[in-house]
């Protein structure tokens, strides 16, 4: 099912990976103590600007800053929308 959203300009829509629920030693992490994920998958990409061509494409796994982007909920899922400049790396 395709999303009915198209980011404008140099913005990117990212689906963050799920936060860890258990440590490597088997301890369960409560919701209040979970780290905000800094890794996700690109779901939609804007067209860029005349000065900035887009580097990322749909399906890329990316790393981004801890406080980058704006959180939004679409069709029951959580997403982040941010400028491509806020993405640190493609992995």
TrEMBL record:
Organism in which the protein naturally occurs: Flavobacterium rhamnosiphilum
Subcellular location: Cytoplasm
Superkingdom field: Bacteria
Gene that specifies this protein: groES
Family: Belongs to the GroES chaperonin family.
Keyword tags: Chaperone, Cytoplasm
Pfam families found in the cross-reference section: Cpn10
Single GO term (MF): unfolded protein binding
Record note on quaternary structure: Heptamer of 7 subunits arranged in a ring. Interacts with the chaperonin GroEL.
Keyword Transferase belongs to the record: no
HAMAP family per record: CH10
Name the UniProt record assigns to this protein: Co-chaperonin GroES
């Amino acid at each position: 099912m395709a999303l009915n959203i198209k980011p404008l300009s140099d913005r990117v829509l990212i689906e963050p990976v799920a936060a860890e629920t258990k440590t490597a030693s088997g301890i369960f992490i409560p919701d209040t103590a979970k780290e905000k994920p800094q890794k996700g998958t690109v779901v939609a990409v804007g067209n860029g600007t005349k000065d900035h061509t887009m580097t990322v494409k749909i399906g890329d796994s990316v790393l981004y800053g801890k406080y980058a982007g704006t959180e939004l909920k679409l069709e029951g899922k959580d997403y982040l929308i941010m400028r491509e400049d806020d993405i640190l790396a493609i992995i």
